[in-house]
Amino acid sequence: MMVDRQEFLQKLITKTDSKIVMLVMDGIGDTVVNGKTPLQAAKTPNLDKVATESDLGQTIPVLPGVTPGSGPGHLGLFGYDPIKFQIGRGILEALGIDVEVGEKDVVARGNFATIDGDIVVDRRAGRPATEISKKIVEKLQESIKEIDGVKVQFYPGKEHRFVVKLTGEGLDDRIEDADPQKEGLPIKWAHATHPEAEKTAEIFTKLMKEIREVLKDEPKINFALIRGFSKYPAIPKFPEVYKMRAAAIAVYPMYKGLAKLVGMDILNVDGETPEDEFETLKKHWDEYDFFYVHIKKTDSYGEDGNFDAKTHVIEMVDKALPKLLELNPDVLVVTGDHSTPVAISGHSWHPVPFMIKSAYTRAGLSKAFDEFECARGSVGTIYAVDLMSLLMANARKLEKFGA
Amino acid sequence: MMVDRQEFLQKLITKTDSKIVMLVMDGIGDTVVNGKTPLQAAKTPNLDKVATESDLGQTIPVLPGVTPGSGPGHLGLFGYDPIKFQIGRGILEALGIDVEVGEKDVVARGNFATIDGDIVVDRRAGRPATEISKKIVEKLQESIKEIDGVKVQFYPGKEHRFVVKLTGEGLDDRIEDADPQKEGLPIKWAHATHPEAEKTAEIFTKLMKEIREVLKDEPKINFALIRGFSKYPAIPKFPEVYKMRAAAIAVYPMYKGLAKLVGMDILNVDGETPEDEFETLKKHWDEYDFFYVHIKKTDSYGEDGNFDAKTHVIEMVDKALPKLLELNPDVLVVTGDHSTPVAISGHSWHPVPFMIKSAYTRAGLSKAFDEFECARGSVGTIYAVDLMSLLMANARKLEKFGA
User: Fold this and answer.
1) What is the per-residue pLDDT across B287-343, written as a single tens digit (0 to 9) for each?
2) Which runs of consecutive H residues, i.e. helices, occur in A262-395?
3) Beta strand pairing status for B265-267 and B246-249?
4) Taking the CB of the first residue and of the last residue of chain B, which one, N or C, has fewer CB atoms within 10 A?
5) What is the pLDDT of residues A224-276, one digit of tens each?
6) Which of A174, A200, A230 is the last residue before a domain boundary?
7) What is the mean pLDDT of residues A5-10?
8) ∠ CA(A287), CA(A292), CA(A293), 5° rounding?
9) Could you say which protein family the record assigns here (chains A, B) (predicted)?
10) Is beta strand B54-60 parallel, antiparallel or unpaired with respect to B380-383?
């Protein structure tokens, strides 16, 4: 986006004692169902009170009309141009489950699958329990340790998911997903999109054939689809760019991975509820200047098309909110990384509502926190990549530009 | 603008069966006269009902404060960066009247004019009837066939307008308009803005002098101003970029020219009213995925400063709208290519209202289709060049960006 935001801000950013909390309710934005959006339907006295004290607006995650994955959605929120920094799913999964990724490595996400002959009949092998899947991963690791002089390591994930890491010289991640995307289609092997990646693609294809051989007598988990090939990306570190000690509070691996990628510390959460996450926030309050707090379930229920459940999660966040508010952050932003409308059962391109509470807001215009109030809020519609500079300004961490 | 939108979208665009209708009411945006804009004053029950089901917003045609011609205005709507793709008026006029333009040609738009000595006293020679003007064009073609080894061809247009085409080696279109722009000023000959165009400028100056000689005994039409010098531009083809079969429904030559330039098919309209245009839409409904429908008269009456007539055209569109709506397009956008305020009697820089109707809108916020509702709509203010990606998103023709 024209000017690299972080480069431009760099010379204005100043270190202060103020604290910023970014509360990301994943997929929060929605559309109207029976007259209301989930944010409108939910009883949210605490969020609405914050709205009366805040600057409201809405973000365009990438570009108008573009539906972001969680990676680009979050990078934008953290102030990284999501078009400039394109991050593979493999690296996010790997970082999320604490796999160390080095400069010479290529990681990818694996999906256990069921094949019948050459046809992929179940892309998730009936969603095996994590414990079963973990044993299969161990079996693979015992049989497959190296291909063409390149070291192969497997790491179990949740259910059908795992991570595979190759370590060796000259590896390249410019490879198409080895996944037909739909069931009933033939196996798709790994294909390089650039000539320099042909050797790596060949190794992944050999790997998939070896996996098929090792698992050939398994009734369901007899194959793996491999995708999201990625090297560790060169990305500026959030704490250095913004001169803040930064921590992430998240339950799901991919979001921990995203935070780790930009150099945040990952804080352990004892439990899974919003209240548990706010408890972690309280516990580490003195140790950091910036906290990213991620609520996953708003997105999950949006993906499920479950209006009532999404609404209920919003109410749970609202109910727990006083625990966060009593810490009295200098700046609080409540937003999402993208919209996940119930009516779409998936991510969407719709603008994402946000509100920023600080001592310096142009408060007074808005009465509640929802999509419509935010569309007509005091900030207007901005790119997500510009949110960080608004937070930094409200935290008085940005000096004047020019004389 | 930052990222080239079409390049970025290319890898996300997917072919589907959904249909998009882009209804362009030329110059629709306006300012308030006696308390209302023409859109507010017009009785538009159909447009207003669509507004209740739509996402509303407003577009910036080029950059804030920049008043676009019809070319940049439309290119933005079609998703082409109007600053990157600058198209001469000559090529638009030529394509609009079915002149074949080859790679070695330079075309320009001619205006018959009246001179008195060296002074241009009427830039349109009293707006002659098309039939009279056509005879003058024939007379010129008989007398002038070649200059300095370059072939010269004339094509009649409406009233005082005509097109001239040069065909030869090494022609260049970087030439200033040979038009003093105001009456009472001396003749302005053709001047190159780049050294490579000097030969071509010289030929055009010779041509203007020969025209003066041939017409010296005519009482009114005794000269021609020549402008909009242009070669055929290299421009990506709309149907290839967006993977849609695309057609244009327009009555006026320049808009047909614009559509042809980007590779749309031009559909014949039997008549000139909005209803006639919607009838054409209906007739060809099954043959295309994208329809650009152009209403000219909103702009014409804006240019004339005629509030009531502009209002009446809006009402005519509204009355005919059910014929369009009954086709049930997956996505309908109603907008303009720029504003033409009655109070300005010309194009302006004001943002242009739009509404997008689909099954996926954040509908419910807006009650009517006008400048004020659009300024406070659910989409906010965006660049015109970003409208296409919103339409593509609503038509579910864009895949998710990133994991």
Assistant:
1) 999 999 999 999 999 999 999 999 999 999 999 999 999 999 999 999 999 999 999
2) 274-283, 297-303, 307-325, 371-375, 387-394
3) parallel
4) N
5) 999 999 999 889 999 999 999 999 999 988 899 899 999 999 999 999 999 99
6) A230
7) 92
8) 105
9) Belongs to the BPG-independent phosphoglycerate mutase family. A-PGAM subfamily.
10) parallel
Contacts A86 to B, Cβ<8 Å: 402
* Residue-wise pLDDT tens digits, A335-385: 999 999 999 999 999 999 999 999 999 999 999 999 999 999 999 999 999
| B1, B386, B402 member nearest A65 (Cβ) | B386
Domain stops at, among A182, A200, A230: A230
Cα dihedral value A238, A243, A245, A247, nearest 10: -30
A64–B361 CB contact, under 8 Å: no
What lies within 8 Å, CB to CB, of A312 at 6+ separation is A42, A301
Nearest Cα to Cα of residue B350 among B53, B36, B61: B61
CA distance to partner chain A, nearest, from residue B204 (Å): 40
Which amino acid, one-letter code, is at B84? K
Q: In the beta sheet, which residues pair with residue B357? A: B54, B332
Same domain, B376 and B241: yes
From A83's Cα to the closest Cα of chain B, the distance in A is 8
Residue B1 pLDDT > 70: no
Q: Are residues B254 and B338 in the same domain?
A: yes
Q: Is B8 on the interface with A (CB under 8 A)?
A: yes
Task: Give the residue-averaged pLDDT of B55-69.
Answer: 97
- CA-nearest of B121, B93, B124 to B107 is B93
Interface of B with A in 310-369 (CB under 8 A): 359-365
